[in-house]
Amino acid sequence: MKKAIFLLLPFAGLLWVPLYNLHDPVLFGFPFFYWYQLAWVPVTSVLIWAAWKSERQS
Amino acid sequence: MNTPTLPDNAAIAVFVLCFLATIVLGSTVRLWRPLLTRRKAATHHTEGEEWGLGGREFGAWVTWFLVGGDFYTAYTVIAVPALVYSTGGFGFFALPYTIIVYPFIFAVMPRLWTIARDGGHATAADIVRARFGSRTLEMAVALSGLIAVLPYIALQLIGIRTVIEALGFTGMLPLLIAFISLAAYTWLGGLHAPALTAFIKDVMIYIAVLAAVIIVPIHLGGYGSMFHAAAQHLPDAPGGHILAQGQIVPYATLALSSAFAAFLYPHTLTGILAAKSADTIRQNAVFLPVYTIVLGLIALLGLMAHAAGIVTTSSSQVVPQLFLAIFPSWFAGFCFAAIAVGALVPASVMAIGAANLIMHNILPSRAESVSGSRIAGFAVKVGALGCVVFLNAKFAIDLQLLGGVIILQTFPALIMGLLPLRLPARALIAGWIIGSVSGLALCWMDGLKPVHPISFAGFSASVSTGLLALGINITATLTLAAIMRLAMGAAPSTLRTQEGARR
Fold first, then answer.
1. Residue scoring higher pLDDT (B239 or B330)
2. Mutate to test the interface with B, among A21, A27, A54 (most CBs of B within 10 A)
3. Would an 8 Å CB–CB cutoff place B245 in contact with chain A?
């Protein structure tokens, strides 16, 4: 079920905190902890959009 | 505590101008909206549906502004940086919370919208009554919504009061101004007022936040040195981590429980149900995360305040003090107006959502008059004012925490009711009572903290109390449902579901 995986990925990526509870690597001065979570915002948008598309196809 | 910077008349003038202009625009929405839409007033909607749900015709853009406008409240602008200011990275749990909420909305809300449209429902309690045919369950959901939203409105009033106080006014005047502006705005404009002024709020907030995230790091020599300077003022997490070991589980569970609770509130659900179509909601689930980027930047203001040397014991003054310290006073006035308008929009939707609950679900006979809704909305605001006047601000924040625990207990009836499970109403009612009582008891025992320490099979951590109570609620509901099924066989009266509500 592709749609369910798309929608569950953000939960996995953000609720498993030890995955990103790190200072390094730093990006543009942002510690990893901060930019990793900010990066999930556009990723989540794209995933939801993909789920929407796959829902329409089926 | 150093002496706070005091603003001059320029700040006050800009604030009054922007704030008043928005209130006048919102209150007179009936007069100028027809010019915009070139459409005759809808005749197939009752006046009540027009006031309370905007005629259920908001397209993608209006829904985006409305839902974004009432989900990301002024209290967010004040409280999230305040939490980051006092706890550092932990305050960032608002970010995962406002990300994972969108896949959840995408999966759940279009279905809820379709049921609400087909049945002509305006509130969560309406939907539950139609689905389970139980007046008691309807009352349970309606009362949960009302109790949960009151302290939320109170916090918006506190938000407006905070910026008016930062402008140098003292005593009861700031609160009085906050209340009167909110009351006039909602009374006259209905849901159209916040829907059409939400964009003013957003543009103002965006300008303020973007200015802050560009100007402050320039002052401080870039983001790297900003993070570095802020870290000096915050408790250190060992081993190159940001969160201490004991903060990890609270961080994740608070994010999850907040995400589940967020769209059970009457105001957020009102925004969703006022959408034009199920696809409008799906589209918004894709584009609403843009707000989350802004939220992340707003959260950074808490770290910037440390780096900028703001020292205050009253954490709600962190953002106003930061703005006064780094911006010219006229622009600080503009930012304060942004926060005040940012409180007005959600508080107004909250009052309307609560008024819908009172008129549709709590009063014994279904009343459909718009003046009744207006009076109910006004009564809700008076209740919120009472929360602010008779309880101190600290207690209002605690109440809001309790509100989150309470609203989460409507999750089984509203969201699990969408599943093809046959849950009897009586099991849901029992689960609701057990979940609410145990959640409130845990909060009380822990001294009103949002997390409760548990240990299970050698594993111990602090878990969000709301989530814990929801787990108890769901377990109780499912156990009772199974027992009822076994005990009664397939007695049709308990397992009956309303025709038409299921698709």
1. B330
2. A21
3. no
Domain limits for position B248: 9-27+51-395
The residues of chain A scoring below 70 in pLDDT are 58
> Could you give the number of structural domains in chain B?
1
Q: What is the pTM of this model?
A: 0.81
Interface test with A, best of B101, B223, B291 (most A CBs within 10 A): B223
* Structure token digits, residue A51: 């789920």
- B113 occurs within a structural domain: yes
Q: What is the DSSP string of B324-385?
A: HHHS-HHHHHHHHHHHHHHHHHHHHHHHHHHHHHIIIIISSS----HHHHHHHHHHHHHHHH
CATH code, domain carrying B286:
1.20.1730.10
pLDDT tens per residue across span B109-131: 888 888 888 888 888 888 888 88
Task: Judge whether B256 is closer than 8 Å to chain A, CB to CB.
Answer: yes
Whether residues B106 and A30 touch (CB distance < 8 A) is answered with no
How confident is the model over B439-490, as pLDDT tens digits?
Answer: 888 888 877 777 777 777 667 778 888 888 898 899 888 888 888 888 876 5
- Residue B147, domain member (yes or no): yes
* Alpha helices per DSSP H over B57-191: 60-71, 74-87, 94-119, 124-132, 135-166, 173-189
Q: Are the CB atoms for B336 and B117 separated by under 8 Å?
A: no
Q: What's the sign of the alpha-carbon dihedral B394, B396, B397, B398?
A: positive
Interface pTM, i.e. ipTM: 0.91
Q: Does B106 touch chain A (CB under 8 A)?
A: yes
- B487 within domain boundaries: no
Interchain contact A58–B (C-beta under 8 A): no
Structural domain harbouring A22? 2-57
Dihedral (CA of B14, B192, B70, B200) sign: negative
Number of domains comprising chain A: 1
A5 CB near a chain B CB, below 8 Å?
Answer: no
Q: Are B255 and A24 an interchain contact pair (Cβ–Cβ within 8 Å)?
A: no
The shortest C-alpha distance from B208 to chain A (Å) reads 20
Q: Is the pLDDT higher at B458 or at B271?
A: B271
pLDDT of residue B496 exceeding 80:
no
Q: Is residue B404 part of a domain?
A: no
Residues of B in contact with A53 (CB under 8 A): none
pLDDT confidence of residue B1: 40
CB contact under 8 A, B243 and A33: yes
| Interface contacts A/B by beta carbons within 8 Å | 103
